[in-house]
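can u do me a favor
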């Protein structure tokens, strides 16, 4: 089973982005078990308010300048945890934030959900990203979804995310969230359309 990278870049395929350059090493994040085989609903809060992973209705422009709308709604309970549903393009992803501010990816509608078929929730954005942190974005059978923090300062976080086929760089800005996604070949895949908002 091919699982697209777990961010808000769904339905966009860029040729030539699979470099075959290996996997991203895991270094761990503050003692978290990632992916988590059995999330405790009591460990999660009702809202995703991580300043790096801002979830709001927004307008993006894809690599060809076409508008892509992101819609955020209350999601279903997944593995007993209430989630936030984020639709961008044709897919909907489910996220939840723990009490420490870490944001977890709980699934993609129609493809996988934590707690079903061996899938486990993984970390999508730490509360305090630090350069060099590496972690699993999800535990999905047949997929190796990982991320490493390439750089982090007071204003922005740059992640490199990968599965067995693709690598991308994702730029997040404090208080804004996802701003730019590009392939390792340098092609812009998705950028926040600030002027359009």
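np, heres the sequence
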């Amino acid at each position: 089973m091919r699982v697209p990278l777990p961010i808000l870049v769904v339905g966009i395929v860029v040729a030539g982005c699979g470099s075959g350059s290996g996997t991203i090493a895991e270094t761990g994040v503050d003692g978290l078990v990632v992916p988590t085989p059995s999330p405790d609903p009591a460990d999660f809060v009702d809202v995703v308010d991580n300043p790096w992973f801002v979830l709001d209705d927004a307008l993006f422009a894809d690599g060809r300048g076409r508008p892509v709308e992101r819609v955020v709604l209350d999601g279903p309970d997944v593995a007993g945890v209430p989630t936030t549903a984020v639709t961008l393009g044709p897919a909907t992803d489910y996220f939840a934030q723990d009490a420490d501010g870490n944001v977890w990816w709980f699934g993609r509608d129609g493809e996988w959900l934590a707690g079903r078929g061996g899938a486990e929730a993984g970390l999508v954005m730490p509360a305090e990203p630090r350069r060099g942190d590496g972690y699993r974005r999800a535990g999905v059978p047949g997929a190796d979804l990982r991320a490493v923090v390439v750089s982090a300062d007071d204003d922005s976080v740059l992640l490199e995310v990968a599965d067995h086929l693709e690598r991308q760089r994702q730029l997040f800005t404090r208080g804004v969230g996802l701003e730019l996604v590009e392939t390792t070949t340098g092609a812009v895949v998705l950028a926040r359309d600030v002027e359009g908002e």
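Residues 41-196 form one domain. hope that helps!!
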